[in-house]
Amino acid sequence: MIQHGTAPFLECSSRGDRRFSAFAARIKGRGNRSIEEIYQAAKRFEDGSTGLTWREAKGKRAVNADEVRALYSVLWDEYIAENPHLLPILTSATGLQDLFGQAGHACQATELWRIRCAALCIPT
Prior knowledge:
This protein is α+β, with helices and mostly antiparallel strands. It contains five helices and five strands; from the N terminus they run ββββααααβα. The protein has helices at about 35-40, 55, 65-80, 85-90, 110-120, and strands at about 1-5, 10, 25, 35, 95-100. A hairpin with a 5-residue loop joins strand 3 (about 25) and strand 4. The longest helix is centred in the middle third of the chain and has 18 residues, at about 65-80. The protein is globular, with a radius of gyration of 14 Å.
């Protein structure tokens, strides 16, 4: 579990507020695909494979890990830009968490906390 801020925590996964789940968050400007679909498909693997479904790619180490991690941040920025009505929910939260988040992996709670802090002009 990954947590940022203080309790009470807004759960940013399919077990909480689904609008902040990478599986449910869809970006209109990217063919209405989910952040998870786009992120997992962008991974490249040692055998040269890429463009896999999220089920095929999830949990596998990509050779372009830094690149896809940066993409993950951009995708959350795009999603919030397309859905500005969600920003007040983030900025009013005292904490965000992802029950499924693991240290060293891309995490929606981490990205949304970054967006929240930027909106409030708070250094992360």
